[in-house]
User: Fold these one by one.
Assistant:
Number 1:
Amino acid sequence: MAGELNIQSMLSRATVPVMNVEQLVYCLLELRPAETAAASSSLPLNLCLVLDRSGSMHGSKIENLREATTLVLDMLQPQDYISVIFFNSRTDVAFPSQRITSESRRSELKSRVAQLKADGGTSMAPAMEAGLIELRKQMSITGNSHGGTAQVNRMVLLTDGITEKEKRCLEQAEQAARIGVPITALGIGKDWNDKLMQDIGGRSGGESDYISTPEQIRTHFARTVQQMQAVALQRVSVNLRPALGIDIRNVFRVYPLIARLEPGQVADRAQNIYLGELERGHGQTLLVEFVVPARPEGSYRIAQVDVEYDVPQSGLTQQRASVDVLLSYSHNPAVVPPSNASIMNLVEKVSAFKLQTRALEDLEKGNVQSATQKLRGALTHLLNQGDTELAATVETELANLEKGRMMSPEGRKTIRFESGKTVKLDKS
Amino acid sequence: MVIYCANCGVELPDGVAFCDACGTPVRGQGAASPKAAVESNNGIGATACPVCGSAALPGEAFCDNCGAALLAPTSYVSPQQAQSSSQPASSSRQVGAPPSYSSAPMGSSYSSAPARQVTASLVVTSPPPPATIQIPNRAELIVGRSDPQSNSYPDVDLGPYGGLDLGVSRRHFRITRNGEHFYLEDLQAMNGSIVNGQRIPPYTLHPLRSGDRISLGKMELVFELS
């Protein structure tokens, strides 16, 4: 039975003027697990922490990392599986995948974490590989490629340095995506490769972030566990079927993080977007840009949205929910409403995100002038949106570029990871 | 009886409300005559970005290339406005009303420039230090920042006060004078013109009083009469 998923579609303008040219209409698609699904308890977790213990982690970083790992052990339920891998130049399975079935077990694992010391170099790929081996132990062999068993899989990867063999790390991220393990890739300090960690998060179907101070490690770890515990629907995919003559120009996820989504073509005009898991509460929100043709006055269905999903708690697979996107054309300017303010705010956030992302790409290619222009445009949006903190960073880095200097590593990381956030993590 | 879509001719299954192919409603087929998609751009948006010249679609909010705002700020409510419920519903909520480009409605012209001994000035209060700019005694003048590249030289140039970095447009607003009365008219500047915390819809005349605070991006000005 369907009904575990609520879909809402909202256009920036439900009515557009009749024109003799194409127009652009923004559509917000909200996908939220219904309250019934939301009321259920959390699914079993299958979590692996892959943690950098190289020499540069010495001091408050390793202390806070120990504390954060202990916090994760405290947050886990008896049904959850946990494994921890430490790495420097070598890979060390601190403890293999297991359940915490007693308090004495919990203390034993904590004492192993307490012995963690920082030394050596950084070789991340073998540790990722070992992590995937631990995670796979709890994934059914007969299960399909997206981890069809009713559990929530995740790898948390944390580093503060430049690793050897980056290409192999990306291969591991792709392998993780194939077996259905999103990676939360976290970097701390200023000397790690932010592009690599972003790609690891992205390619695995997970996410990435910048931890600017060691005290924030525990906030990030705790949030990841909470997100896993909030998963209500899995294997969620959206099929967008625009009507004849309607083009989909772009699809962005705007909540919880902004990202351009690359739809796969299904048939004809239809596009399929794999969203993965939906958490209780907000779920995910997409922004679709429809290019609509000139049409006579009237009301039209411009697209059908079909969503397929699994409800792991009740063992239901491939459930469906649908919604129509309707648009009216009118000759009467009085009935053409102003654009929806909350949608336009998100559109502006996406525009700022695009400009910042492209500016970083320009810089990678050495095109400083173009990057500067884009950052200047982004700055205007950020100021409009009242995002003064990120605006200040962008301003500082603009000044650096204009004086012929490089961006600071911290500034670049802040821009890379903060620009996509529609909700800011509470810095506590 | 087999039904065909009036718009695209596809055969329609029974009971559908919309054509599966083109989305045209099945009921009211007669109403949608495929003629006359007319009219111009009802002030909904530009078809080329005014800043970088990239192609844009009506309804598009920001230039895909450079990010410049393409819709008049009047077409949606800014977050600040949305939050302040105390603010009266202003004309800024009406979209589709094409901006009026006509100049001052009180019939002023350059020749009838006022001769009264009222002098107006703009005081740059932020960024510090405060600086006073005398406003030339003219019926109309443009405030903005100079940009030799685009050959833009406004009457009052805020460039030397950091206008570029603070978000001042090349042509930000117009001050129109009629006798002792002064009006501010936002020229659809990217960051808009905010007077005493209220965003002024573009191309509308807003009366200025001595002591009014004007925000342009991050620059703060005070309008003063003496």
Number 2:
Amino acid sequence: MPKEKDIPAGSAQGTTRRDFLRKAGAYTVTSFSGAAMLLATPEEAQATANVTWAEHFQKNYRLMDEEEKQEAIDRLEKRYSEEFGKKVTVDGSPAIDGVLFGYALNIQKCIGCRRCVKACVAENNQSRGKEQEIEWIRVLRMEKGSFSEEARAENGYPPIEGHEYGVQVGGNSYRQAGVVLEGQHYYEPDAVPEKDAFYFPIQCMQCEKPPCVKVCPVRTTYRDPDGIVVIDYNWCIGCRMCIGACPYWARRFNWGEPNLPKEEMNPDTHYLGNRPRMKGVVEKCTFCIQRTRKGRWTGCVEVCPVGARKLGNLLDPDSDIRKVLATKKVFRLRADLNTYPKFFYYMD
Amino acid sequence: MTNRLKTALGRWFGLALTGPSSCDVAAEKVSAERRQFFKRAAVGVASIAGTAGVAKSVVDSMPDPDIGAKYAHAAHQGEKELLEREYVLMSEQEKASMLEELIATHKSHQS
């Protein structure tokens, strides 16, 4: 039997380029077909087939020109519409000129009902269910404290004449205003607000000097011109450096494929905001970018039953947020983190 | 010179870019061996890549028994630190300088 090296290349008995390509192609097709058959339901297979090579190799959104952005958006709209069985729109609206978003929350008014949390989940297509719940807003229940004049002086802050502060629950009402929405796992009273507690919602502070942006190795998270810190989910590699860098623990990671039932999916999405995410990417509050870039309030501002939340343009002296900063008692963290958050806590 | 370079490279990779040369049989034998080597290497790489792809797909499809704990841990992460933080009231000067800094930083981003 002639050895392979004795057979002249290109001869009838040797391997030709055609044979090699045929075998390699057959092997590859067999491998992928086998994997696809093992794994995919018919709907998933169809949706996955729509994920073209273009999506795998697209650029960072910031570096795309308008045409490339539109192509990416069209691909996503097609994919999401097929996946969720409804007409899904993916908006790519850029930041509005002359706008720098700021947010203020009146901790004296907040009753801890968590309607903001649930509205956020519904509006922003977050993963839900007992096992895979993601909530961008976290409400902390804190024991009633005080911000006394003595404490300011003890810690080196200059005195402010005529002011003594305490934190009261429920604003000007000590009657409980409602119940905590089910599904929460931080506190479970029968009704809120509780007399000896106040409630402290925390979400992304949209820092003006964001540490999460500094640490991202692939620059997928960045500060958009209107001050919102956004994430290009297609570019995120899931390293979670940003989660570690965030001093407010505001970011969430998709450990698994998000659980988003088709009937609950909000079809009005933004590329950098509430479009359905995938396994292995980080997400966080985006000030409801799909709403705010169309001149609407965020979901949490709209749903708050006591009007504790304010959103506005820090560059507009007549906006609600500027009035809060000018006229209300505004708080900052005692330790200077130097992140310059644009989310403020205040009291009347 | 470019043609000679092309011919030499082609011969090295075992591609017949020109007609039969006047080189001896040993050089042809080396070309054939190199061609076989590259073919086997390409098949090997394709096999490994294909197997890796199948393995990843299978592993990804397997349910993660700890996934609930991971999400719950992430939801509570940093809670102790957040609860221990202290907030102080800002004076008017502090508010004004903070606003000034925010707007200045925003403008520097714009430029």
